[in-house]
Specification:
heterodimer; A: 362 residues; alpha/beta; Rossmann fold; 11 helices; B: 746 residues; alpha+beta; MetI-like fold; 6 domains; eight-stranded antiparallel beta sheet; elongated
Chain lengths: 362, 746
């Protein structure tokens, strides 16, 4: 039964040529661009609405755009001040691209990214530069995210000086304070990154970010390169800092246990789409989307006596350049229906604050 | 001493104090530069490389300041080689002294030849042989009836009378008397045209018969030429020696000027006689050596002339050309000198000018009113020997001498002077009144091989001796007064004399010695010095080319990497275009083009550097581009952007410092490569040219098989220098790379 549906869907996909899909996407981008600006809720630090990031596929001698890699395909979420949102999903589902697009390190294709009610991507460059200290990022790889030629004080203090965060005469003290806050010793100042361990380096990265007194920090898998004991230290450090400084985090990770530990709300992404978005409690208590279910079933339980109920997904994640039609997940979904391959599901609020995009809940 | 020990003990006893985490010693961090330096000097190979390079630099750049030799100084050595010195020959041709035309000479030889019998002359003393040459009648009178080398006097004929239309005209009163006239008239009237030989009172008269008249000739009383096989060699030797001694001439001049009649020089007394007008005679031991006469040399004066544009122009002309009668001027000057006046006037009465005479130690200077030196009078020395040289060409002397030789006389008189004649068996010596040898008479002809050789009397004597005694070796005193060994080779009756002669040869390929530490090369230049200048060129080429490559490579690679996109694509295609140029064929073609255009050595060096730079920057451009492309995507660059750091700061604080070490390492390592390339070019003969040198062009000499086999000192050191320098650069490059790499702990 399910196989025949899949076949049908494949036939329908085959009916649409590449050029037609390309045209559809272009039309979709135009539609999204015409959407009216969203209402700003002062509670929210960040409001993302229908964010689209397509990377063009260029072919031929003159690099003509013939298609798109749909890295982020209509993602919406809000983050309240002082909370942490966890963004989970498989590798390649577009989590990091969401983070970088929010930071305007890559330009969005369409949609809205509002930081404190300001559309980031519409700011002139000068204004953007002024805004930069407010939104910071912590990178996954603590080895490549520090310039090997600069001493620690310079790495942390460079942008502080650049943006005149503190007066020049208080600079030293300020750096000492920030470093202590992040668990670094002031005498580390003159050392070079290669003299530090991974955990220490990540502390340096955190220090670099918080030294700018930001409101919002995007943590792009900040602990996945560290071993477990260090992970805990860093996570705790981040949580402590959040309490102390009232920071807001967007915590990107594929490690669900870490996300569970730190997040207030959780978004689950699959192939550029936000498939489910709810508070931590709701989503862990009642995962609605089949993908979320499958994902959460993979969380190891540290008790050998408990028999795990595993939902095994078939196949691997499809290419974002040529995603399945309708619901992108339907090719791997155990609960796939006829409609899934034809119509893309809309995001619905199934219970208050619990959003899901699945035809099961129509 | 004991104090130190006590302290040491104390130190050992003192408990190891625990170091705090923020202890100054522990916290002290070196600056990045210092860190690199420390890491670098900890690398033994790198230090070895630095030492090698330092030695090479000192050697190449400071060495030439201390080297006693110049860059392209060519050394020579004196070699003694047997060389042709002179040729001797027994004279088998008659030599004519006096006024004998070639026609007469050939007639004489013909007449003498007729007397030959069995290859020998058959003659008697005093025999007269009449012969004709052209229309003229001559008589040959045998002086010396030798079988092999006869001497004869040639007499012409004097017209003594003509008979025309029966009329007798007497032309020589002393010889034509009435009797002769009667005999001649009889001959005329006989009408016998063939009766041309008449004898009267022992005088042989010949008649020339024409249609209208008969001319009668009688043999001349004085000979016109002498034919002899003897050669007269002047033998008065020491004069030439003295003439070459300027100090001697100077002292004689001074003595003459001072009016002295005697002087002593090097223990020999010389006498001066005569006067200023007729010349002085310098004599020693009774024989005259020099005739000293005054030599006039006119100076230059400034004269105003009308130039082409009509303005007065001052020109310098020889004073002599301004005089109408230079001889009159000299006479006036001499008159003033004789009167011991210091001034005199000369010129037309209305415009005479005053001149002053000034005597220096050896010269007389005459100056005009403007103080210009118009005339210098100095002494000129003519060897008296030249007087005897004249005798050589004097027919009368030859006649007298040959007659005396034929008579076996011990002396003969000539022009009032009595000459002695000594028979040495094969040759004769003629002495002057003072008893000096003045001429050697023999039948040996000789000639020097080239102009530089003056044959000494001793040589001539010894040569003759050797020729006669058929010796193949003899020794003689040459023109420089040195005893010289000579060897004779006989070829076709010519005796070739060769001696060991000094020749200056280029001292090429000489082995290492204390004078030339690494010997000399093919061109005779000092290899050790040449290597210094070669090192300069090689090292300078290396550095300049690397800087040129860095300049182009960093700009193009940096622009390409940082901006990316279309700019990157275009620039990289451009780089590929350059990479597609075949390197060595291009260089070889450009090298031969420069050869053809005769580009100077210096320009050639410049061109070589430019070409190497232009063909070599692409590697660095790619390297820089690649590095910048990869750095641009590094998280720390994104972090820098995310923290809102300015673009310029991002480039100069984050990007460039991360590219620099790579560049420095690469540049250092490629320095070695460029030195090798330059050496290759030099080796192929395309690099720098003489008089410049590079290590490669020095090795180029190994193309000569002989050099490769025998003269290792020419090419092995240059090769070793290239090897060690390139190794040095590579060691330093490696050391720098390790030192710059912060990941390398310790």
């Amino acid at each position: 039964m399910a196989e025949s549906v899949k076949k049908e869907a494949a036939e329908e996909v085959a009916q649409l040529s590449r050029a037609e899909i390309f045209q559809q996407l272009k039309n979709h981008i135009e539609e999204v661009k015409k959407e009216p600006p969203i209402q700003h809720d002062p509670q929210n630090v960040l409001e993302v609405h229908n964010l689209i990031k397509y990377f063009p596929i260029k072919t031929g001698l003159f690099s003509r755009v013939t298609g798109y890699v749909r890295a982020v395909d209509g993602v919406s979420f809000n983050i309240k001040r002082g909370t942490t949102m966890g963004l989970v999903g498989e590798s390649g589902c577009g989590k990091t691209t969401v983070g970088k697009t929010i930071l305007r390190l890559t330009d969005k294709t369409a949609g809205q990214v509002c930081f404190n009610g300001v559309e980031i991507h519409d700011l002139p460059k000068k204004e953007m530069r002024k805004l930069r200290p407010k939104i910071q990022m912590i990178f996954q790889d603590p080895y490549s995210s520090l310039s090997p030629r600069l001493p620690i004080a310079e790495i942390i203090g460079e942008a502080v000086r650049e943006h005149n965060i503190v007066p020049a005469n208080e600079m030293d003290e300020y750096l000492d304070q920030v470093m202590k806050q992040c668990g670094l010793q002031p005498y580390h100042k003159d050392r070079y990154p290669h003299e530090f361990s991974g955990g220490q380096r990540q502390r340096i990265c955190i220090a670099r970010s918080i030294a700018l007194k930001p409101d919002f920090i995007i943590c792009d898998e900040p602990v996945s390169a560290l071993d477990v004991s260090i992970q805990a230290q860093i996570i705790n450090l981040m949580m402590d800092l959040q309490k102390e400084l009232g920071l807001t985090y967007l915590f990107i990770s594929h490690d669900l246990s870490v996300v569970q530990h730190i997040s207030d709300t959780i978004g689950v992404m699959y192939l550029g789409n936000m498939v489910e978005y709810a508070s931590k409690k709701q989503i862990f208590a009642n995962p609605l989307h089949p993908y979320t279910e499958a994902l959460f079933s993979a969380i190891p339980i540290p008790d050998p006596d408990v028999k795990m109920k595993r939902v095994i997904l078939q196949g691997s994640i499809p290419s974002p350049a040529n995603p399945p039609s309708g619901c992108k997940f339907h090719t791997r979904c155990a609960k796939c229906m006829g409609i899934c391959s034809k119509v893309a599901p809309k995001t619905k609020e199934v219970e208050p604050g619990h959003f899901v995009a699945c035809h099961l809940y129509d | 001493m004991s104090n130190n020990k006590a302290e040491e003990l104390k130190k050992q006893e003192a408990p190891q104090e625990e170091m705090k985490l923020d202890d100054a010693r522990r916290v002290k961090v070196l600056s990045p530069g210092m860190l690199v330096f420390k890491r670098f000097i900890r690398n033994k190979l790198a230090v070895a490389g630095i030492i090698i390079l330092a030695v090479m630099f000192v050697y190449s750049f400071l060495g030439p300041l201390f080297s006693p030799y110049a860059r392209a100084q060519i050394f020579t050595k004196d070699v003694e080689e047997p060389g042709k010195y002179a040729t001797g020959k027994f004279n088998t041709d008659s030599r004519f002294v006096g006024d004998a035309s070639t026609r007469v000479q050939s007639a004489v030889l013909k007449a003498l030849g007729k007397t030959k019998s069995g290859g020998k002359y058959v003659l008697t003393a005093g025999q007269e042989i009449p012969f004709t040459a052209g229309d003229k009648h001559y008589t040959l009178k045998v002086l010396n009836p030798s079988e092999t080398a006869p001497a004869c006097a040639i007499y012409g004929s004097d017209l003594i009378a003509t008979i025309s239309m029966g009329k007798f005209t007497q032309l020589d009163e002393t010889r034509v008397d009435a009797g002769m006239q009667a005999v001649l008239m009889e001959n005329f009237e006989s009408g016998d045209k063939k009766a041309t030989e008449i004898e009267y009172n022992g005088i042989k008269i010949s008649a020339e018969v024409t249609k209208l008249e008969r001319k009668y000739y009688a043999p001349a009383q004085e000979p016109m030429a002498v034919s002899t096989f003897n050669i007269y060699t002047p033998t008065l030797g020491k004069v030439a020696e003295l003439q070459a001694d300027t100090e001697f001439l100077h002292s004689v001049s001074a003595a003459v000027m001072a009016g002295e009649t005697a002087l002593e020089y090097k223990g020999v007394s010389y006498g001066i006689s005569g006067d200023a007008v007729n010349g002085y005679v310098l004599s020693a031991n009774g024989s005259d050596l020099f005739i000293i006469t005054r030599d006039f040399r006119f100076g230059k004066v400034r004269v105003e002339k009308e130039g082409a544009d009509g303005n007065a122009v001052t020109e310098e002309v020889e004073f002599q050309s301004t005089l109408e009668d230079p001889e009159a001027f000299v006479a006036a000057m001499q008159a003033a000198l004789d009167a011991e006046e210091t001034t005199f006037s000369f010129g037309p009465e209305d415009s005479s000018a005053d001149y002053s005479i000034e005597k220096t130690e050896t010269e007389i200077h005459v100056t005009n009113g403007n103080g210009e030196l118009v005339l210098t009078v100095s002494n000129s020395f003519d060897p008296v020997e030249s007087k005897y040289d004249l005798l050589n060409d004097s027919m009368e002397f030859a006649f007298a001498a040959e007659t005396a030789i034929a008579d076996g006389a011990a002396s003969f008189a000539f022009e009032g002077e009595q000459f002695g004649l000594v028979d040495n068996g094969a040759d004769y010596t003629i002495l002057n009144q003072a008893g000096d040898d003045i001429l050697l008479v023999s039948d040996v002809a000789y000639g020097a091989e080239n102009k530089g050789i003056e044959l000494t009397v001793d040589f001539v004597k010894k040569l003759q001796e050797a020729m006669r005694s058929k010796q193949t070796n003899f020794s003689f005193v040459d023109q420089h007064g040195e005893e010289t060994q000579a060897t004779i080779t006989l070829v076709n009756n010519n005796y070739y004399v060769s001696t060991m002669q000094k020749t200056s040869l280029i001292d090429g390929r000489s082995a290492p010695s204390s004078k030339h530490w690494l010997g000399t090369d093919v061109n005779g230049m000092d290899v050790f010095t040449r290597l210094m200048y070669g090192g300069r060129v090689s090292l300078i080429v290396g550095f300049v080319v690397v800087f040129f490559e860095l300049f182009l490579g960093v700009i193009i690679g940096g622009v390409s990497g940082y901006f990316g996109g279309v700019v990157d694509t275009c620039l990289m295609r451009f780089v590929e275009l350059f990479n597609a140029i075949p390197f060595y064929p291009m260089l070889i073609i450009l090298g031969s083009v420069m050869d053809n255009l005769h580009v100077g050595a210096y320009q050639r060096l410049m061109m070589t550097m430019v070409i190497l730079g232009i063909l070599g920057w692409t590697g660095i451009a790619r390297l820089v581009r690649g590095q910048i492309l990869s750095l641009r995507e590094q998280d720390f660059m994104i972090a820098a952007e995310a923290t809102g750091i300015r673009t310029s700061r991002r480039i100069f604080r984050h990007l460039i410092p991360n590219v620099m070490p790579l560049l420095i390492v690469n540049a250092t390592a490629s320095l070695g490569g460029i030195i090798l390339t330059e050496a290759t070019l030099g080796f192929l003969g395309l690099g720098v040219k003489y008089p410049m040198a590079s290590w490669g062009s020095i090795i180029n000499q190994v193309n000569d098989m002989q050099v490769m086999k025998t003269a290792w000192w020419i090419w092995i050191p240059a090769g070793l220098f290239i090897l060690t320098t390139v190794l040095g650069f590579n060691f330093v490059g490696d050391g720098l790379r390790d030192a710059f790499d912060p990941k390398m702990k310790r």
